[in-house]
């Protein structure tokens, strides 16, 4: 059996993932990047994300990142006897993470109580649309639903009256990823409590809702409404409480974001622009005044930025020490020297593709033991025999499970 070496601050931790699509697998990818041994249970036909996004020869490029550092075990969870396989696997696990609808795991014979009869110390992380209880508990939900009901979709739109198009999506499955982030934090927190803070060795349950994960990021939206009755409105590219801070056009058709919203920064921007008396204009004398007159201010800044190509404009702003950047696309991110220097963009060999693919790096960066990308998303069931043998299954038992089409 393969003896695998792990590095990173979470080495020695074992996580069983019974997840699909994005939220739970994103949680476990973060933990795996930091050194946890993640065993991913997926259907015999594979996780649906294997067919998402752009592909090469029928293989998903996203999968390479989505399932990296995880060992794949293919199990038909609906087959008689499948629950018994999972129950033997959890004996050696610190935590289990899943994102079925509430109650679905129990209907498969894998309730919290059943799991903890096998492993009383097991931390169980549930990720769902609305949480494990409440009036919406059984409703279907994906990340986009969480983004809408959590207030993000409303605030990420263009300002009122400027567009008749539907509210704008962020562009990635941010609701799922946020839930995954909170689930990862919850798992680590529960393990700390189990092993150190309380030190009682007792398993905990982590309950993460997509909707709540989004709502938790809404800054002052709720207290503002509660005390003033004010409903925060979308502001497009601008920050509603500070100015100037927006994206401005350049002569070569690019957009440059400029954040000159403190007094020293605004003064430096005014000096750089020259030929205009912005600093002495009473409409722009302080931040509240600039916010009140932001449309006129942005028009003046935009008229100035349009004189320059993006590279020239950015050089001027950098020399003046005014925070600014071009709006990046994928090609810009991939080529950026800062991302490359910190290995946030790196090339990783992927045997499924027979070549290196460009991956995002590991976040957070734990400097003394940062973890590593040990391998990319595996083939379906690539590690089934290895994992089962490591959990005490004999070769005849594994063969029998395969013959009954419980595993692949």
From TrEMBL:
GO molecular function: CoA-transferase activity
Alphabetized UniProt keyword annotations: Transferase
Pfam families assigned: CoA_transf_3 (PF02515)
Name the record gives this protein: CoA transferase
